Amino acid sequence: MITSFVFWSSLLNSTEVDLKGAIVRPVRLAFVAVMAAAIVVGPVTTSAAASEVAACTWKSSPLPLPAGVTKARATASDNDGGYAGSLIDGISDVVYWKNGKVIEYGQVPAWSGYGVFVTDVNRSGVIVGYSAPTMRGGYVAFRSVGTKIEPLPVPAGTYSSTATGVNDRGDIVGHYNPKFGERARAVRWPADRPGQMVELTGLPTGNWTNSEDVDEDGTVLVVETTGTGSTSSFLWRAGVVTKLVAPVAAVDVNAHAISAGRVVGSITLSGGGSDNLRAVEWDAAGNGRVLSDGYTAESVNRHGVVVGLPRNFEPGALVWRGGALEARIPEGDEGQMSFGPIGDDGGIPATLSIGDVTGTETPMVFRCS
What is the pTM of this model? Predict the structure, then answer.
């Protein structure tokens, strides 16, 4: 489970930012109307095996909106045909699309118009994320209970907290900052202790740590960030910590998502240079490989299908299967497309943003059929 590729800002639309904080690419604004027809993409294959499984085309279809709402974002998948995101016509309500219906979960507590970020949803429809209550920084982690949103429990006086992943059991992961200026710590809210926040033990101390994602067996994917911005990534399993090793010489390892033991993310190659990021996939045994043409891999489903972004700031998304590039999904000529995580059902939630005076944002789902 993983969050959308971009960090949506209600204040700025001149840059596109990963939900974990890394800038993805400059936003390309287009002053045209929303596309009238679905984007259709032919598969790009790199081997005979890839050709066999890629005998389909990627097409987008819009998600329905409540009456009177014209703008929304789809940013998470429940892995079973459902998607979550937010309505943004001045309300920023959390929303869940399931079985052709739109279920409104309402506003998050303490919301004041500065941003609501839906990061994940499980098969039971439990939605997690975080909101920005003020312009001064600091976030409030939330989860859904039924069809209502409530803040996750944190220690009194906590400066900031986020929820970044939830599994089908209901385990939630994220991070919290005890006080302004203090380092972030990776945490989880166990399903069997819903009223408690638990800091992960056994991780490196002294640097920032963030729980990026959680697998169905409870394994937590953690990224450590030093004061200079260097990153390392770890798997946390019931207190046992395993470091992910880059498949080639690298100075940074930045993991983003985990599913059925597979991990995807990016590495920064040793030696510097402007084109030094590479998309990477690790199998359940921890063996890594570089994925062709990608600078980051952002999501993976239990079938091993990986979605990420291309190198050299090219628009659109890439799809890999079995380590081979299977398809390219273009951004299109009308606006800027932001892709969410691929679900086990094969759907990819996305949002088409048109940067004209209307600020149109259309939620949709890409499928290969």
Answer: 0.85
